[in-house]
Every structure is written in structure tokens, then in C-alpha cells.
Amino acid sequence: MNTLAATESTSPRTQVERAYLALRQDIVQGDLPPGEKLRVEHLKDRYEVGAGTLREALSLLVSDALVTAEGQRGFRVATASLADLEDVTRLRVMLETEALRQSIRLGTAAWAHDLTRAYEALATVERHHPRPYPPEWETLNQHFHAALIAADPSNWTRHFLDILYRHAARYRYVALRLAHVPHPPRDVSAEHEALYHAAVQRREARAALVLEDHVRATLDVLRTSGHFTP
Q1: Does 123 reside within a domain?
Q2: Does residue 216 have a pLDDT over 50?
Q3: 69 by DSSP, 3-state: which?
Q4: Which residues pair with 38 in a beta bridge?
Q5: Do 177 and 218 reside in the same domain of the chain?
Q6: Is the dihedral of CA 103, 105, 108, 110 positive or negative?
Q7: Domain termination residue (choose one: 77, 93, 108)
Q8: Which of the residues 31, 95, 184, 201 has the least number of beta carbons within 10 Å of its own beta carbon?
């Protein structure tokens, strides 16, 4: 659970942003589970902000489709389902593989350098920590995926992929909690290594195929687990 040390010197805008980020993290990690009613009178104490600030933060999460507004009945965490994950995965594959192709075609030496730094930071954690990885892995993983597509000139593509990434992360946390359930073998570190080398070597078609398999892997795990009923 995240708490916010809001003080009198904190601007209202900053308080909204901090509440938004804390709520978003708790939703993505599953601390606020899918479908849960978000009661402002309870959450304002949990996140140490006023009711108005919390409502603004929740409205931002509605824009991200992580929260749903129920008219006069308040807010609720967006539901999760296999069909939703299939849709998120399909869109992510379509947008992210094309963005990666564009980055490989247009990326400068600086892009390759930044990609290498992002990969090495992620690989260091994966080499020295057995799964489940420590909390900082999620941030490093996101930075790596962002670095892969950083040379794509489309701001809209990166914006939508940022939203889709967080929705995919919700399901990734579900998959991590199902570690005891048999599922197709997966070596995430090897997937990242193959993806990095294909991208930095400018092997466009290979990189796109590796990325597609990598993105689809969480869907394969949850589909096999039977966690979500049809």
C-alpha cells in the first residue's frame, strides 16, 4: 500500500499527480483488485489526500481505462478477463512491433547506446535475482521496452503503448502469482537477450518476431492456467 505525505507546501496539482501514480501502481500490482469498488471516503485516508484530490486522480485513471466511472455511484477498478488480455495483446503486438521496426530503421547511434544501457540494467537484475524478480524489475522492464521503440517518430504510438503496457502489466502480476500452476516453460531473461541483440544488430524482421512472441507469452500462460473462465 502506498501512502502520500502531502503537506501544506504541496501544490494541489502535485497532490493529484501523486495520488494518481499511487493508485495506478496499486491497481496494476493487484493491491486494488479488478472490479473493486473505490470508495472515496475510505481511500482518502489510505492515500492521505482530500476527497476532491482523490476524485481528480480517479478521473485520470478513467482516461487510462484502469478505472470505470459508474455515474452517480462512484468509481470501480476495471475488470479483468481473458478476452480483455487478448485484445490488449493484439493491439500491443500490432503497435509495438511496427514501432520497433521504425526504431531499427531510424535509430541513431544514440538510440542504440540508450537501448544498451536499458538492457544492461534489466539484465543485471535478471542475472542476480531468481524469479520472482524484485520490485524494481517492473520499472527496468518498462524502460527497456520504451528504449526499443524510442526512435519511432510517432508520439501517439508511444502514448497508446504506454497505456497498453500498464494494462498488460496487470495481467503479468496475475501470472506471477500463478507460479505454481503448470504452464509453457519460459525464460524471460533469454527473451530479453534475444530481443536486444536482434534490435541492436538491426535485424528488423527477427526483432519483430521475437517481440511478438515475448508479448504473447503472458497470454499463453494465463490461457493455459485456466485462471480466467470463458
Answers
A1: yes
A2: yes
A3: strand
A4: 75
A5: yes
A6: positive
A7: 77
A8: 184
